[in-house]
Amino acid sequence: MPDLVLVRHGQSDWNAENLFTGWVDRGLTDRGRAEAQKAGRLLAEIGDLDLAVVHTSVLTRAVQTANILLDELGKSYLPVRRNWRLNERHYGALQGLNKKETAELHGPDQVKLWRRSYSVRPPALDRADPTHPSFDPRYKGVPAAELPSGECLEDVVARMVPYWVDRVAPDLYAVGSGGVLVVAHGNSIRALRKHLEGISDDDIVDLDVPTGVPHRYRLADDLSIIGRGEDIGDAEEISAAAEEVRRQAG
Predict the structure, then answer these.
(1) pLDDT tens digits, residue range 57-99?
(2) Domain locations in the chain as residue ranges
(3) Using one digit for the tens of pLDDT, what is the confidence trace for 181-232?
(4) 101 an active-site residue?
(5) Closest by alpha carbon to 39, among 186, 231, 177?
(6) What is 1-68 written as a DSSP string?
(7) Are strands 214-218 and 3-8 parallel, antiparallel or unpaired?
(8) Catalytic residue among 35, 55, 72, 88
């Protein structure tokens, strides 16, 4: 049976500053690099895990996390596939703003809708803004209509599921009893978990994905989940990290 392992990138500098990051390209902090190393060590300790292929977004914090994790795992030679469809949710005009200060300005209920609801988009980023992805060379091959100015989680599901079907699932079929690692972001992982686990639109609001924690699925031959997915690591530490994510907007 194949394995699927999902890892949210380690802490970035804007995570540490509690800023909406989205598609803004930021690197890892020292803590983030340590989280990536720890994730690699935890996966190395799993005796029956044989990763064969890696998928990441095209954002630096995910790329760095994957590289550090693979070095720690002793598998820096694995093929890596990168795609914008695994990017974080685009937070529109909120990108670069402090989450707690935004909650104080607009109210915690409104910010919770922008951050965690399934179908409410944040205020859109002006397409003429120089930080819009249409000006970023890494997206020059992406049709302009597909580049977001702001996304809700429903939008992330819509762009991520085709990548799962067309790219990740074929790799899982190809590796047989091996495994596929996906290093992505809080919301792209929430989107994928919603799809795989059949989580409702209402319940997905309460799923918090901490940085640097591997989440493992054992899959049947048809890629259905056997049992339940499991977080790898100390349960109390993971719970505390998830609570930290939950409290970011105060």
Answers:
(1) 999 999 999 999 999 999 999 999 999 999 999 999 999 999 9
(2) 3-176+191-246
(3) 999 999 999 999 999 999 999 999 899 999 999 999 999 999 999 988 999 9
(4) no
(5) 231
(6) --EEEEEEPPPBHHHHTTB--TTS---B-HHHHHHHHHHHHHHHT-TT--EEEEEE-SSHHHHHHHHH
(7) antiparallel
(8) 88
Helix (H), strand (E) at residue 197: helix 186-197
45 flagged as catalytic: no
**Taking the domain 3-176+191-246, which CATH number applies?**
3.40.50.1240
Choose the catalytic residue: 9, 55, 185, 215: 9
Contact (CB, 8 A) for 75 and 47: no
CA 226 to chain centre: 22
Task: Tell me the pTM.
Answer: 0.95
User: What pLDDT shows up at residue 249?
Assistant: 61
Q: What is d(CA 71, CA 77) in angstroms, rounded to the nearest whole number?
A: 9
Sign of the CA dihedral with 60 first, then 61, 64, and 67 last: negative
Which residues, 6 or more positions from 156, have their beta carbon under 8 angstroms from its beta carbon? 89, 187, 188, 190, 191
Q: Name which of 143, 90, 98 is nearest 121 in CA terms.
A: 90
What is the average pLDDT across 162-169? 98
The DSSP secondary structure of 96-161, one letter per residue, reads TSBHHHHHHHH-HHHHHHHHH-SSPPPPPPPTTSTTSGGG-GGGTTS-GGGS-SS--HHHHHHHHH
Q: What's at 218, amino acid-wise? A: R
The CA distance from 132 to 229, in Å, is 35
